[in-house]
Amino acid sequence: MEVCRPIPVVTAHKRVKALGLLLSIPLLLALSLLLGPSGIGFPDTATVSGQAILSLRLGRFFMGLLAGAALSASGTVFQAILRNPLAEPYVLGVSGGAGLGAALSILVGGTLFGAVGLPVAAFLFAILTLLAVYGIASQGGGAPSVYSLILSGVIVSAICSSFIMFLVSTADIAGMHTVVWWMLGNLQPASAESLLVSLLFIAPAIGALWLLAPALNVLTLGREMAHYQGLDAGLVTMSSLLLATLLAATAVSMGGMIGFVGLVVPHVMRALFGPDHRWLVPASAIGGGAFLVLCDAIARSLMPPVEIPVGVVTALCGGPFFLVILRRKMANAWIS
Amino acid sequence: MAAPALAFRSVTAGYRNRSVLDGVDFAIAEGEFVSVIGPNGSGKSTMLRTATGLIRPGQGSVELFGREVSSLKPRERASLIGVVPQKLESPMAFTVGEIVMFGRSGARGRWGIPDPKDADAAERAMIYTNVLELKGRLFNELSAGEQQRAALAMALAQEPRIIMLDESIAHLDINHAQEVLRILMSINREERITVLLVSHDLNLAAQVADRMLLLDGGHLVANGSPGEVVREELLSSVYGCELRVRQDPYGGHPVVGGTLDTVTRRQGGRKRLHVIGGGGSGIELFRRLLIEGYEVTAGVLNRLDSDAEAARALDIPCALEQPFSPVGQAAYEEARLMVEEADGVVVGPVPFGTGNVVNLELASLALGAGKPVWIASGIAGRDYTPAREAERRAELLRSAGALEWPGLPQLISLILREADGPEA
Predict the structure, then answer these.
(1) Contacts with B112 from chain A: Cβ below 8 Å
(2) Mutate to test the interface with A, among B16, B92, B100 (most CBs of A within 10 A)
(3) Residue A307 lies in a domain
(4) How buried is B418 (Cβ within 10 angstroms: 0-12 exposed, 13-18 middle, 19+ buried)?
(5) Which CATH number does the domain B264-420 belong to among 3.40.630.180, 3.40.50.450, 2.40.160.60, 3.40.50.1390?
(6) Which chain B residue's Cα is nearest to A7?
(7) Residue B408, helix vs strand vs coil
(8) Nearest CA of chain B to the CA of A97: how many Å?
(9) Which residues contact B187 (CB under 8 A, 6 or more apart)?
(10) Owning domain of residue A242
């Protein structure tokens, strides 16, 4: 006999959880403003240095929120479209491309890359990589299959990594240090303008993915089933992969290669909110943002005046916490 | 007259540079229950994918209710066709209710918020398929039978006018398979939804369908009532094996059975057959005769010939001659002894030249000794001797009682008939 289980995800519970998630944002804002390598406490806005510290901390808060939201929403979409729990924002080679662009900008610099600046170089290379991956995967015409996309993503990533290693190995100590630090991730925005630019990329892309949520739900059954359910499956697949990659590219070019957020936060949100992307996309965005802000606050206040790279903290602190949630709620998160 | 529910007009279709369907032409009227049968790789799934617009035909056209499939918008298409796959896989933890509601994706608004009409359609579909009480359960935790009913409910929630099933009952036990078919028959009868059932189960297909389509190698080889399509010679030749058809004593529909019993029956006194092959013509013949339970000998063959290599690999005793040499006295003598030991001689579709035409002499010896001989038909096209000697010898053999075989299934049934003849 089978035991009838209760409905696993109750909407009323989801609302409560969503409210909790939203309320965490102002709390984290307060925390971010209190913590920093210059000491604990709200900066004294009467002094010039205090104002500077406040603006630095505000900038980092918003950057963390944006980058975390972008990476996490992107990971959610990659996992749905590729139907693979190991998918993450960098699976199509975005990180390799962005890393190569950043390394070139830092090490070769000069007139070509120096002029456009590091984030732009990283972004452009990420997009170029993406185009190369699609180009390779679409050989033979038609929409590329999930497997050819993943495979060509891995190959192009590997090629980019080789170039980065070559560049780093021939660089001087200072250059090498800069590249490595960039790759570890740093959420300090270069300027208010760069923050605004990333907002202009990230917010519409997340919004568009939210609109695609019902289609993403059906696509988890596979592209052929989605076709039978009345979707233009190829179009939805391609547009959501492009949007997700755009999100990842923006986040990487602004904050470096921050790992873990885009892979694990979507799983945790799926455990908490169920697999419905109408809930999952916004929940992942908010959850990813909140998580990254929290990690960043820890990263810069744990060993003052030294900052730990935020990418180290995301996995170190987040890992155990998320393991607990996933162990308890795995049935809700992913079955295969 | 109303437009047919589904019409293929001289459709050629396939993947990339490989054509699977070739000139397929048929029409299904609204309200019909049609089943599609055919061996693996005959194009059944390709036909279904072409019918649903997943593959565009290279030539010809596919029409749904009088409209070209490729001209339909995705949503219109989903309101006309529902598809139940072989197995629906949901990697994420959606409930049955959510999965069935996916069937309304094409019907409901862009934001995907279901209105009461969507909820009604989904509920009706769940009632029909008896999954309403499973609504809140996780799809992945259901049994295979329940999952297939839920998949059927999803397709029905689309409120389609034609429903297509791609081997959807293939891995259900007989009880659950019948349950799904019963649901299909009732929606077909009561809602006049056209059903296209692709199935490997010839008996179920024949039992439920008004009409059957038989595909073979991408061609539509039969289109008619179960009685017209499920015929012994037709199915035996399409499936490449000996099949028997009888009438079901209760329903009167045809019932197909294999002939595995003949293999086991022969195990006791194994018959030995001598094969005259060469040039690769014997490989399939060796394999088939061994599977059917015969002892096989072969020759005369030249060393390094692909048949000689195959015989060696299959442990078939073989009279051998040097490579590229005409059959000599010693090898011929060896083969003659094999024929003496054999219960019959099979002449494969071998090209004959002056070097190997003497092998046909072996067949004459067998006939002379009262043993049956089966010759592959079309020897005239393979006769490369200057004086058409092979053709002449074959003619003599035929007049002396040798039988011609056009293909392996026919050969097997001829051999069986010979063996069973005296008993029956």
Answers:
(1) 213-214, 217, 278
(2) B92
(3) yes
(4) middle
(5) 3.40.50.450
(6) B136
(7) helix
(8) 30
(9) B128, B156, B163, B193, B195
(10) 55-333
Q: Write down the pLDDT at residue B118.
A: 85
In chain B, residues with a C-beta closer than 8 Å to the C-beta of A220 are 90-92, 94
Written as tens digits, the pLDDT of chain A (336 aa) is: 333 444 444 556 888 888 888 888 888 887 877 776 666 677 777 788 888 888 888 888 899 999 999 999 999 999 998 887 778 888 888 888 888 888 888 887 655 555 557 778 888 888 888 888 888 887 765 667 778 888 888 899 899 989 988 988 888 888 888 888 878 777 877 677 888 888 998 999 999 999 999 999 999 998 889 999 988 888 888 889 889 988 988 888 888 888 888 888 998 888 888 889 999 999 999 999 999 999 888 888 877 777 788 888 888 877 787 777 667 655 555 544
Looking at beta carbons, which residues of chain B come within 8 Å of A224? 54, 85
- Which residue matches tokens 């991408």? B218
Helices within B129-225 (DSSP H only): 144-157, 174-190, 202-208
Assess if residue A19 is contained within a domain.
Answer: no
User: Which CATH number covers residue A61?
Assistant: 1.10.3470.10
Distance from CA of residue B356 to its chain's centroid? 36
The CATH class given to the B6-230 domain equals: alpha beta
Count how many domains chain A has.
1
The gap from C-alpha A313 to its chain's centroid, in whole angstroms, comes to 15
Contact B140, B89 (CB under 8 A): no
What region, left, alpha or beta, does residue A78 occupy, with left being phi > 0 and alpha being psi -120 to 50 degrees? Answer: alpha
Q: Is the ipTM of this complex over 0.95?
A: no
pLDDT given for residue A8 in this prediction: 45
Chain B environment of A8 (Cβ under 8 Å): 93, 95, 136, 138
> Would you kindly state where each structural domain of chain B is located, as residue ranges?
6-230, 264-420
Closest CA to B101 of B162, B138, B154: B154
Residue A285 forms part of a structural domain? yes
Cβ A107 vs Cβ A175: under 8 Å? yes
Predicted confidence (pLDDT) at residue B251 exceeds the cutoff of 80: no
* Same fold? B6-230, B264-420: yes
- Region B310-320: mean pLDDT is 89
Give domain status of residue A150, yes or no: yes
pLDDT at residue B424, as a whole number: 35
